[in-house]
Amino acid sequence: MTQSTSLVWLPGLLCDGTLFEDINQMMPSWVEPQCPTLASMPSMEQLAQKVLQDAPQEFVLGGLSMGGILAFEVYRQAPDRVKGLVLMDTNAADEKPEVTQKRDALVSRALSGEFESITPDTLMPVLIHPSRLQDKALTERIEGMAINVGLEAFEAHAKALATRPDARPLLADIQVPTLVITGKQDLLCPIDNHLEMARHINDVALHVIPDCGHLSSMEAPEKVGQIISNWLELNRAKF
């Protein structure tokens, strides 16, 4: 019997397992993907502890945006349990004050009763490529994720992002196969973030998806799914 490998996905802010549904269909048969519901905790350290508490003993770890940021913290806490990393549309650096300021303003709006309108009215233009803004099937799924995550988790995760540690010193210490993927037109986590990761991580592959924004796994699932599947097959012996 072929031994299976667990693939734990960590979603971005206001995202859930829907973020990975399409690409999961393309994973090799020996890979078992799962995506936990992230607890409403206000620090990356706490969130990582909870992920590790619920995760298999050994696993490949993937994350998009906030999920990638959280993946760094999970690896920091338990490098022996993480057998590979998939980092998508993310950022290894600590947060800039101006970013915190903008997000805090969104949280204030959400708390004052505007939560359901924030994703379609404010976030959507920076989440996906301009050519996809009229793709109703895509935008409705993105809006649905935000509603499902809810206001309490949004507020907590915003605090976790604002207070996160700088993961850049960790990059050179990552000793597992790592795949870095980004949309070329990602406005929230620009391409330079990913070039920096690729420069410092030892065993790394970098892929840039053309005509794609921040939510690459939903915008270009065929390309992203194939890249991840190929990378998993290539590194299977290391997992």
Automatic annotation (TrEMBL):
InterPro entries: AB_hydrolase_1 (IPR000073), AB_hydrolase_fold (IPR029058), AB_hydrolase_sf (IPR050266)
Superkingdom of the source species: Bacteria
Stretches assigned to the AB hydrolase-1 domain: 57-221
Pfam family membership, one: Abhydrolase_1
Entries under PANTHER family matching the protein: AB HYDROLASE-1 DOMAIN-CONTAINING PROTEIN, MONOACYLGLYCEROL LIPASE
Protein name: AB hydrolase-1 domain-containing protein
